[in-house]
């Protein structure tokens, strides 16, 4: 090889090497500047939480990886304190709030809405927020959100609730924004079915013997049932929630009403205390002014507490409108609800285990739409170990979804036959 060639190649190699080094340095510099901005896109993390003090003064502390701005409000009947945060990741045990202290009976936490997390404290009585402050991270110590509570009079707490009401109402209004899946044009050529997976977000619902969360299992099943109902292309099927987001009970009812749903199915898997060794199997509930039995009353009370658990202000039920047309619509709707419930029980009998007297009734708030046939289905009872094992079984879920799909087919068969110009069976 000629010496000049060697020199040219060596020079070229040196130039390439220098260029590579320059690119590496630039990448490193850009990386240094890019890292903080990327980190800022990640959700803040709650790494610890604790309650200290007594019934005169109580301190609540959240350990966090960075500072956030909380919004604190109160609710009465029962007494609750609400701490709203930007959406955060809770890296703490799921049962962290079961044991309270001082003025705090217990507390819970979780996602409240898209972009919002919430801590709800059940209080032993009226309190006053003495001070709230954020301690920055120092050395190995995390940043800390500190809320100090002191005992107060009912009147003082009522004034605090009233002062914080406007901001809280705006947040609750945003918990279930109208999205495209809820507001796009309704295809009334097909029956419209709303599936309502219970609970969600901060409201976990029941917890199974082995830790199964009701909110997770009912969402999974609702998505499976939607897939089965979508297969034939006969129905327009919507979900009140399709992720781990809290939806107030009143909003669930509104969704069915706004979509002019032809059928509303609320899906649950509750836990019972009374006779829990024996309460197992699927149950179908319809609405009634008086509970059919004690178990139905207990389940309705439990389900109707969803808004309380999530820290939503309970509003008085609207006064019944003295209108004969609305009364007739309500009676007709309840008649259709009972008809579907009986058909559903008939289909489920040959597919899954049912509780004794599987069609029951009680005053479920989520079933109160006067113009939408509505049922609430308890897939099983998470307080029963055998039911919990079935609820997480793919095979059982498929059987349950298949039976419910057949019941829906039977309910809408006369209408579909009329639309197709064929005689109904």
What does this structure look like?
Residues 253-409 form the MurNAc-LAA domain. Residues 169-190 are annotated as: Disordered. It catalyses: Hydrolyzes the link between N-acetylmuramoyl residues and L-amino acid residues in certain cell-wall glycopeptides. InterPro entries: AMIN_dom, MurNAc-LAA_cat, N-acetylmuramoyl_amidase_3. With 425 residues, the protein is an alpha/beta fold. The chain has two domains: 45-163, Immunoglobulin-like, CATH 2.60.40.3500; 181-420, Aminopeptidase (3-Layer(aba) Sandwich). The chain is built from ten helices and 15 strands. The chain has helices spanning 3-41, 154-173, 180-183, 214-230, 249-258, 294-303, 306-310, 324-349, 385-391, 394-420, and strands at residues 45-53, 57-64, 71-75, 80-86, 89-90, 104-113, 116-123, 127-135, 143-151, 192-197, 236-239, 263-268, 282-287, 354-362, 374-378. It has a six-stranded mixed sheet with strand order 11-10-12-15-13-14, with helices on both faces. A hairpin with a 7-residue loop joins strand 8 (127-135) and strand 9. Helix 4 (214-230) crosses helix 10 (394-420) and helix 8 packs across helix 10. It is elongated, with a radius of gyration of 28 Å.
